[in-house]
Amino acid sequence: MAMQSRRTAGVALAALVVVAGLALAQGSAVDEIAKYREALQDGNPAELWELRGEEMWTVPRGPRQVAFTRCDLGLGPGVVKGAYARLPRYFDDAKRVQDLESRLVFCMVSQQGYTPAEATKVTFGDGAARRSDLEALTAYVVGQSRGVTMDVALDHPRTREMYALGEKMFYYRGGTHDFACATCHGEDARRIRLQELPNLTTIEGAQKAYTTWPAYRVSQGELRTMEWRLYDCFRQQRFPELAYDSDAAIALTTFLARNANGAAYAGPAIKR
Amino acid sequence: MLRALPGYAAAAALLLGCATVPSDAELRAKAAAVLRVSFNARGQAGLDRLEQDETQRACSEYAPKPPPAEVASRIEEQNLASIRYPADGKLTGDWKNGERIAQEGRGKQFSDDPAGPVGANCYACHRLSGTELSYGTIGPPLYQFGKLRGFTEDTRRYAYGKVFNAQAYAACSSMPRFGHKGILSEQQIKDVVALLMDPQSPVNQ
Amino acid sequence: MADPMKIRASLVGDSTEVKVLMNHEMETGQRKDAQGKVIPAWFIQNVTATFNGRTVLAAQWGPAVAKNPFLAFKFKGGAKGEKVQIAWTDNRGDKRTDEATIA
After folding, report:
1. Would you tell me how many other CB atoms lie within 10 Å of the CB of residue B156?
2. Which residues of chain B fall below pLDDT 70?
3. Mean confidence (pLDDT) of chain A
């Protein structure tokens, strides 16, 4: 019988820190944290979000009572298998490059009849009282690309431009602290405190990071999406609040997703 | 939480009409314009934080490469001129407070209480005291900073200037300009300098 | 009404391996909200697993178990195509029963 426990997890992490201190070998702490993650992989609560999203997918929703089975994620109406591995992309009907979360909002607004405000009322959930349909739907859709090779095409000029803009934003320094994405994610083998940071300017770094988001965050007890990841990075960068479904979020996602091309998608993952 | 869906209107308009390959400068201008319509002011973090000063603009322009030598020296000159040393001539405060400031990660985020503590979060990037094992590696290790360099007035002055404005000494350094940007008060910078330079500080054990 | 569990059951040799994910807040009663008010305890207290009308696992849980708990166990016996039921009750009296077919 195995149980995950907040306390056990906390004790385990604390123990790892002590071990690292005795050996004075920081590399081993990183290895041990990787083992901790691996142990959590069996029984990833992200599956509960996938399950909820899957149930939502086929149910008629909104003022017009239309199901997501009419929603085209790029591979045809209702086709979910492998769709996430090819996003973001340009959509003719939206006249815009969209990531998965933008596309879900688009379908909720244009097909199901919700207002944009209704569709994005709860973007990031907070416990049983404030759950996010978008997180559940995202978990379900990305889970249907597990094992699929990332293949984001820049064949459309608008997608190409979004990639180029995302790259510029990645290096855009601003705010009180002069931080850019690149401040933390532009070099190999760097850490904030004991948290190792992926170098998102390399293919390997982008692949490892992008293919493991969205993820269940054990410390929050919530499933978090790529839009959340960017939102919370900018919060820590001391920037204002990144708007959900904004072109900056989509541009940065295009930059990262394309750099991850060639890797097998592995989400939703589980992280500390 | 969400106050605007800029993607639906404004930004889409900005992206129209680009049949030719844009120049690097056009691309940067467009990226800045898209950023402006992609954020909402929240708490203490207003949209003004997206507006770059000259240093931020120059450093972003050449990234990931370092800026050309003449640009780098202009950045360093300008930032050097911004440094204000304490009027009382005392460069060090209390290293115990300095340690608290070095450990404190809060401050200036939209989620932080504007009346709450503002730290320097030094340990996020640097090794400082020999006993704190949870330290980052974005910046160089500063363990035994004073002991290795000598407990001299010149080193204290350098440390104060570096914390006040790191880019006076290294253009486009990743380190925040704590004094220049008003993140830390004069007393807080003195305390952090004490953490680095006091012979009793755990950094120098 | 609580959300469904995700249950997987598979026959390995002469035993059945069961893995269960439960959807539950598992609030400890020790935490405070942003206003400083204690968030009341809310957690699963009893878990039972049943196969062919026989209880193969009974557990008493407390607030130390994580949010969205994962439970894995084995029992002797079982056969492909037969069903395993999992049931829990929490300290508010809410309950949930789900079943899975052994694969």
Report:
1. 21
2. 1-20
3. 90
Our answer to whether residue A233 is catalytic in this structure is yes
Q: From the CB of residue C91, how many other CB atoms can be counted at a distance below 10 Å?
A: 17
Question: Which positions in chain A touch B182 (Cβ < 8 Å)?
Answer: 176
Find the angle CA(A226)-CA(A252)-CA(A220) to the nearest 5 degrees.
25
Render pLDDT for B125-167 as a digit per residue (tens, 0 to 9).
999 999 999 999 999 999 999 999 999 999 999 999 999 999 9
Would you state the structure tokens that stand for residue C32, as one six-digit string?
Answer: 């405070």
B134 at interface of A, judged by CB pairs closer than 8 A:
yes
CA distance A59 to C77: 38
The CA distance from B93 to the nearest CA of chain A, in Å, is: 23
Cβ atoms < 10 Å from Cβ of B179: 23
CA pair distance B205, B203, nearest whole angstrom: 6
Burial B138-151 (b: 16+ CB within 10 A, else e): bbeebbbbbeeeee
Q: How far is CA A34 from CA A207, A208, B51, B94, in A?
A: 17, 13, 39, 39
Which residue from A218, A222, A234, A226 is spatially nearest to A260, judged by alpha carbons?
A: A226
3-state secondary structure of C20: strand
Peptide bond into A268 cis (omega under 30): yes
B163 contacts B192 by C-beta, under 8 angstroms: yes
Closest C-alpha among A191, A219, A216, A193 to residue A9: A219
Q: What is the DSSP string of C46-103?
A: EEEEEETTEEEEEEE--TTSPSS-EEEEEEE---TT-EEEEEEEETTS-EEEEEEE--
The reply to whether residue C67 touches residue A7, judged by beta carbons under 8 angstroms, is no
Write out pLDDT tens, residues A83-119.
Answer: 999 999 999 999 999 999 999 999 999 999 999 999 9
Chain C residues whose beta carbon lies within 8 Å of the beta carbon of residue A3 = 65-66, 69-71
Beta strands in chain B (DSSP E): 39-40
**Contact present, A269 and A215 (Cβ < 8 Å):** yes
Find all residues with CB under 8 Å of B91, minimum gap 6, and list them.
B85, B153, B156, B157, B159, B160, B190, B193, B197
| Beta-strand pair A269-271/A215-217 | parallel
Residues 16-35 of B with CB under 8 A from A: 18-19, 22, 27-28, 30-32, 34-35
Could you give phi then psi for residue C55, rounded to 5 degrees? -75, 120
Phi/psi for A56 (5° steps) reads -70, -30
Residue A61: DSSP 8-state = B
Q: In the structure encoding, which two tokens stand for residue B88, read together? A: 């009382």
Q: What is the ipTM of this complex?
A: 0.90
Contact B3 A243 (CB under 8 A): yes
Q: Which residue has the tokens 């985020």?
A: B109
Angle separating helix axes A247-259 and A203-210, nearest 10 degrees: 120
Q: Taking Cα atoms as reference points, which of A244, A226, A163 lies closest to residue B39? A: A244
Question: Which of A3, A44, A51 faces C65 most closely, judged by CB atoms?
Answer: A3
Whether the CB-CB separation of A238 and B114 falls below 8 Å is answered with no
Touch between chain B and chain C: 3 or more Cβ pairs under 8 Å: no
Q: Which of A50, A47, A46 is nearest to A217 (CA)?
A: A46
